[in-house]
Design a protein that fits this description.
A hairpin with a 7-residue loop joins strand 5 and strand 6. The chain is elongated, with a radius of gyration of 17 Å. By secondary structure, the chain is an alpha+beta fold. It is built from three helices and six strands. It has one domain. The strands form two sheets. A three-stranded antiparallel β-sheet has the order 1-5-6, with helices on one face. It has a three-stranded antiparallel β-sheet with strand order 3-2-4.
């Protein structure tokens, strides 16, 4: 079951239960079970700082523990909910032939 959480204690316990370490993959926080090419292992402080920039929630999955991603990164467009809503509003306005706000 996938769960989005911003609780640092829950993330730490999840990583500990599954033997995962904090890492950054192209600047995006990830939890790793083993060393991987192109992934920079880091400490928890750097991991949570990157999560705050990209998240702030982490999508964890007990079925696939090493597939953790920031919740915003799990969207195929990388949009936050607010950005997706703003995009949808612009689409509806265009559909109704309204001029976009300046």
């Amino acid at each position: 079951m996938k769960t989005a959480t911003s609780d640092r204690g829950e993330i730490l316990h999840f990583a500990g239960r599954h033997g995962l370490s904090p890492a950054l993959r192209a600047g995006v926080p990830a939890l790793l079970a083993e060393k991987q090419d192109g992934v920079d292992r880091c400490g928890w402080e750097r991991f949570f700082a990157a999560l705050d920039r990209s998240g702030p929630a982490l999508l964890i999955d007990d079925g696939d523990p090493a597939a953790c991603l920031p919740a915003a990164a799990s969207d195929p467009h990388g949009w936050s909910a607010a950005a997706a809503l703003a995009h949808a509003r612009r689409f509806v306005d265009a559909l109704r032939h309204r001029a976009p706000p300046a």
